[in-house]
Amino acid sequence: MRRVFAGVAASKGLALGRARVREPHRLDVEERMVGEGEIDAERQLLHEALQAARRELNDMRDRVRGAIAHEVGEFLDLHAMLLDDPDLESGLDELIRTGHYSAGYALRLQRDRLVSAFDGIDDAYLRSRREDIDHVIQRVYAALHREPLPQVIGLAGEVLICEHIAPTDLAHLHEEGVVAIVTAQGSTLSHSAILARSLHLPLLIGAHEALLHINDGDALIVDTLSGHVIVEPDADDLRSFRDAEAGTRREKRALERLRKAPTRTKDGTEVRLWANAESRDDVAQAFSLGAAGVGLYRTEFLFLQRRELPTEEEQFLAYRDLVLGMNGRPVTIRTLDLGADKSDSTGLAIADEPNPALGLRGIRLCLAHPDVFADQLRAILRASAYGPVRILIPMVSHADELRACRKLIKRYTDELRKAGHELGEPPDVGAMIEVPAAALALDTLLPHIDFCSVGTNDLVQYMLAADRGNDALGPLATARHPAVVRVLGEIFRTCGEAGKSVAVCGEMASNPEHAELLLGLGLRDFSMHPSSMLEVRKAVREAALS
Ligand code: PEP
Ligand code: MG
Fold this sequence. Notes:
Elements lengths: L2 E4 L1 E4 L2 E8 L17 H25 L5 H16 L1 H14 L3 H17 L4 H4 L2 H15 L13 E5 L4 H10 L3 E4 L7 H9 L3 E3 L2 H6 L5 E5 L4 E4 L3 H22 L15 E5 L3 H9 L5 E5 L13 H14 L5 E4 L28 H6 L1 H14 L5 E5 L5 H20 L9 E6 L2 H5 L1 H4 L5 E4 L1 H9 L17 H17 L2 E4 L7 H10 L3 E4 L4 H10 L4
Parallel strand pairs: 3-4, 4-5, 5-6, 9-10, 9-16, 10-11, 11-12, 12-13, 13-14, 14-15, 15-16
Antiparallel strand pairs: 1-8, 2-6, 3-7, 7-8
Helix pairs in contact: 1-2, 1-3, 1-6, 2-6, 3-4, 4-6, 7-8, 12-14, 14-15, 20-21
Bound molecules: phosphoenolpyruvate and magnesium ion.
Magnesium ion binds next to helix 18.
């Protein structure tokens, strides 16, 4: 019988396939206590299971290659880090020793404790890390019972229906030819969602009803563009699907033809497309699509998912690779923007600020940690020896912050030169315009900077008092609000009059529907993930300014 279930798009796309339902994974372990004499044996079993799980992760790390190696490698590293956490093993050991629980039951208890701690965290990104805990514990549990880890048997042409999906499963499923995934849980901020988007694998999350009612073998249409999964589609559904699919294919082919085309409006205005790029693949793609340069490199990704701060040397190597990857085109390295929705595990960002989006984030955090900022600035300056670099300061609200940054950049430049380091041209210094105060008092900031980049994600959040991580606000948080549009127009005009270049690097710039509006307001520099570049180029080429 035809039925339609709703969900939320975590990775956009269309798919038609057979359902493969994976039973929701639960660690349904019987409560088993062990006698005093068995305790050591249980502890040993647990220790061996942890070792086996570590070995499995290492083997997988060695095996992943190709385009997905970078992303999958990051998830595997995170899982290895969770597994290596000494608190995990000592907590389990303690449960067995003092509670006399079996190793399996201790695992289940520890998992429940960790997950409930995550549930209480008021941070969508961190909350979504509970999935990682689940996957790690599941791996140890499987090792404990000497069973192979329940592999997701994904076959070509199938749609996987499951409670939630691990990033490592995703990579494997993609290789197997699974055409879409529908989950009951998950978040658009989860690692799985990020990976699904870069693999172009449609992922519909939050489809609780679908999980309850879909059976193995049902024919399904997954349409994450409209946020639906249709069970046993009828002839009309199939026709609409075929039409939509043909339309998508045509669009893709037409877009591919624009790879080498200039980004110019119908009436000849030149526009520059820059890339928001973090991974090596992003950089390579950006270069081949003719990006003017990297418009935004979010350095906080070097700090997330780890317990220790990256050293100056480590950062230098990452920035140098980025600069080399763009082969002479400028790269804009944004200084650390931790805090608010981007919390780390290094203890740098304050985890329990009462109002983190309005707290010690971005440049405020960096100026409060001069040693951390010094390592980063020195690393960026050293990378400038390999090609043109620009430094972008996030969350600026006062001119004093920019004065302080300028002073530090000068100081480290002098120190590095004195120490015999080769440095390139002095980097241009710019400010993210994402706090309303910075936008409205832009004239007070411009004397201290060479360029600016508008962070519409935060600007919209702060102007409209609409939390960017709260899906429930939906269309309220729109960059097309008249207040935002007015402020954007003002920013572009003020920069134009002062002869300072301005880009938009928030998501607004990657949406082709906004291209004409932004062009009309005076924007000529757009920065976006490379996957959006051809669509925006197309929109620019179809726009006319006069
Ligand atoms: C923004 O706020 O628009 C932006 C580009 O920065 P982030 O999304 O990293 O906060
Ligand atoms: Mg921002």
